[in-house]
Amino acid sequence: MTQKSYQWELIRFQDLKNESLYALLQLRIEVFIIEQNCIFQDLDGKDQACHHLLGWDGHVLVASARIVPQGVAYPDYPSIGRVVNRQSYRRKGAGKALMQEAIAHCIALYGDTGIKIGAQYYLKSFYESLGFVATGDIYDEDGIDHIKMIRPAGL
Fold first, then answer.
1. What is the domain range of residue 23?
2. Euclidean distance between CA atoms 124 and 9, whole angstroms
3. Which of 38, 43, 113, 141 has the lowest CB atom count within 10 Å?
4. How many domains does the chain have?
5. What CATH number corresponds to the domain at position 83?
6. Using 50, 70 and 90 to split pLDDT, how confident is the model at 1?
7. Residues with Cβ < 8 Å from 14, sequence gap 6 or more?
8. Alpha-carbon distance 21 to 97, whole Å?
9. Average pLDDT of the chain to the nearest whole number
């Protein structure tokens, strides 16, 4: 199977155009709140400090992640968060392509100091395939099992 090519856009929050912001929030609500049946405050005050990676298939936003500077989510590491992939694009390489892009941009923006994430536990092996290592116990976040993971510097 040939992996589809997506158009990637890395943009600071304050530079997001209305249409892109709307598509981003719509995708996050579609997946995190409706599909995962999780009532939580998605707009957590961190977006404004982040770069947002948007993956487009034509005019359709298929994947997104926010690149979080050190000190916003974790005191000692930059992070990648709000990783989301449109359901109809799963198992087609969009999630892996998104994370590869996000890792590369995180390193380019903040240096190769390691990256820490709070991963949904059911995706642990996916993140391990990208070099992340579990660093703690499973914990509940908004009714979903999560685990802290770090991708060490130098990978």
1. 7-151
2. 26
3. 43
4. 1
5. 3.40.630.30
6. very low
7. 48
8. 21
9. 95
